Amino acid sequence: MTENPLVEGLERLPVHPTALVIFGGLGDLAKRKLLPALYNLAHEGALPERFHLVGTSRSEMTDEGFREEAADAIREFSRREPDETVLTALLADVRWVAGSFDDPAVYDGIGKVLSEFDEQAGALTLNRAFYLSTAPDFFPVIVGHLGDHGLHEHGSNPTHPRIIIEKPFGTTLASAIDLNKRVLSVFSEQQVFRIDHYLGKETVQNMLAFRFANRMFEPVWNRDHIQSVQITAAEDIGIGSRAGYYDEAGALRDLVQNHMMQLLCLLCMEPPIDLGADEVRNEKVKVLKAIRPPAPDEVASMAVRAQYAAGSGGGEAVPGYLQEADVPQDSNTETYAALRLHVQNWRWAGVPFYLRTGKRLSRKVTEIAVTLKPVPHVAFGDLAGSTLQPNQLVLTMQPNEGVSLSLGAKIPGTRMRIRPVQMEFQYGTAFVSQSPEAYERLIMDAMRGDATLFTRNDEAEAQWRIMDPIVSTWEDTPGPLPQYEAGSQGPAEAASLLREIDSWRRI
Ligand code: BG6
Question: Could you give the C-alpha distances from 267 to 230, 233, 263, 368, 394, in angstroms and in order?
Answer without folding.
Answer: 11, 15, 6, 9, 12
